[in-house]
Amino acid sequence: MQERPGIITFKGNPMTLLGPALVVGDKAPAFTAVDTGLAPVSLADFAGKIKIISAVPSLDTPVCDTETRRFNQEAATLPDNVVLLTVSMDLPFAQKRWCGAAGIDRVKTLSDYRDRSFGLAYGVVIKELMLLSRSIFVIDATDTIRYIQHVPEVTSEPDYAAVLAAAKGLP
Question: Which pLDDT value is given to residue 63?
């Protein structure tokens, strides 16, 4: 397993990411996570759609809460062919509880707790914490990565405008 030290920090401390360093233009790696009903969900389930995949450490933390709520609101401004996915290591039951309490109805949450399939394929597992780093991937309808944002400090919010512009700019 490839280790990439110093890409991000958590509360100022350097962390190590596990997995490959994907770049724009790469084919999006396949992955399987589970939804809030424990059903398997894969990248192939969103074939032909533009995908905004937001990886977060835990929905039960303030920044992840804010980020997911913001993307849920922004979903209304996006074309119908765009799907928003938030992936975390949270258990599906916790995700379901959180989504219900937060009124999340446009973002689909996926849990990577079983195999870390998404995190390891996309190179966003934080070795020291075994959580996902705050990262966003915009993937076009042909499953090519068109935008990547690794938020340098895990406790900071992403650049929402850049993510949304990347998704809106795709055919």
Answer: 96
